[in-house]
Amino acid sequence: MTDTAPDPTPLTFGWEEWVALPDLGLPAISAKVDTGARTSALHASDIETFGPSSKPKVRFNVHPIPGHYELAITCSAEIVDRREVTSSNGEAELRYVVRTPISVAGQTWPVEITLTDRSGMASRMLLGRQALQDHISITPTERHLQPLLDYDVYHSSKMRTIAPNRALRIAVLSREANYSTRRLVEEGEKRGHTVEVIDTTRCYMAINPMMPEVHYDGKRLPRYDAVIPRIGASITPYGTAVVRQFETIGTFVVNNSAGISASRDKLHAHQILSRYKIDMPTTAFAASPKDTSNLIGLVSSAPLIIKLLESTQGKGVVLAETKKAAESVISAFRGLKANFLVQQFVKEAAGEDIRCLVVGGKVVASMKRTGAEGDFRSNLHQGGSAASVRITRTERDMAVRAARAFGLGLAGVDLLRSENGPKVLEVNSSPGLEGIETVTKKNVVEKLYDEIEVNVRPRPARRRKGE
């Protein structure tokens, strides 16, 4: 004899009940029961579609508390149908239909819901016949026969632990179809999100106090849940302006514009490290050629490092073996009107550094990079090699502090191992992902999406005065 699951406890609904839509991030919503309607309806606003035509999704906002339009929960779900619905006043409307679980009194079952903007309605939701399963009976003269919920949940810290199972719409700002960009798309789509690659230089902005917008290819870009900037060094000023525009709109960005700008300017970056008391090689900067000798003296005796302020991937970095060689390089850079700094050479590092990838305040992977034979630079782009490495607690803490000092959610922090302990060499706001994933065999992009999903969860709403 085969065991069968027991039937659920019968429920009795009044004409109004409290329900939860957990996959939409709505823990409490008041619903009117209407047996005259076939399909349930959710009063939604800002309805927009996204994703591939083969598997389209819809994103929308719900104001769960009547009269409180400052509280908006952003939801998304797969579209299962598009249906013409005639309302009680006889008006026909073509609505998107989604399927999502509904929870009442510990019981959960799937329902189909149409989306419509009817903000004037007292109840945020209408429960139709399809949602009322066979074991549910209706007492139309009563209300709230099931457990009462409370709108207070939207003001509590519990909102941060509610993780709606919804697809996100994410933009990657990138001009290159390289490994890092491909992995960001691949991993996001694997998790059910829609990831769109946007060429940063083709974005343009409408800057105004009421409706700041970002446009692309002749159209206003849609609302994104998150933006992942991959801003190349050659377009830093314009790229950070685009990121700043998304910040103005209120979009969550993995790396903020100020952190990207500061990390690209080596002088500014070292000043930030200094402000937060993060150890680094001794560094000096001067504008006048009359100060060359004193500049060298501030750092140490030769050999020393001379760096262009906007150098990347080891380019524009010179090792001067003697004081005379240093003076010659400095003179040449000044002749080119280039901005540069002079830095202590950490000889004991022996052409090696440690790249720590920091995501959301945690080191998720690390590798040791070794320069090519005869080259003091350890950059992989300069022919260096890499291997996985275990880092110390001190190194881990220093990498996290450095990323936090710049406000970066994703950062590559480069450390040197000196006889006086680790020193931060550089903080990279657009670290390459191929080398570190290949060497460590770790899925670091997965960790980044974990962080994004946490940050786009609903936050507790502020209470109004007098509530």
Number of helices: 9
Please give the alpha-carbon distance between the first and last residues: 58 Å
Shape: elongated
Question: What's the CATH architecture name of the domain at 11-160?
Answer: Beta Barrel
Low-confidence stretches: none
Q: Name the CATH homologous superfamily of the domain at 11-160.
A: Acid Proteases
In the CATH hierarchy, the third-tier topology of the domain at 11-160 is known as Cathepsin D, subunit A, domain 1
Report on the biggest sheet.
Answer: 9 strands, mixed
CATH class of the domain at 11-160: Mainly Beta
Strand arrangement across the biggest beta sheet: 2-3-10-4-9-8-7-6-5
Q: Helix- and strand-based class?
A: alpha+beta
Q: Over all CA atoms, what is the radius of gyration?
A: 28 Å
Q: What's the rounded overall pLDDT mean?
A: 87
Residues in helix, %: 10-25%
The share of residues in extended strands comes to: 25-35%
Write down how many β-strands occur, each being a DSSP E stretch of 2 or more residues: 27
Which descriptors apply to this entry?
467 residues; alpha+beta; Cathepsin D, subunit A, domain 1; Rossmann fold; Dna Ligase, domain 1; 9-stranded mixed beta sheet; 5-stranded antiparallel beta sheet; 9 helices; 21% helix; 33% strand; elongated; metal-binding; ATP binding; ribosomal S6-glutamic acid ligase activity; protein biosynthesis
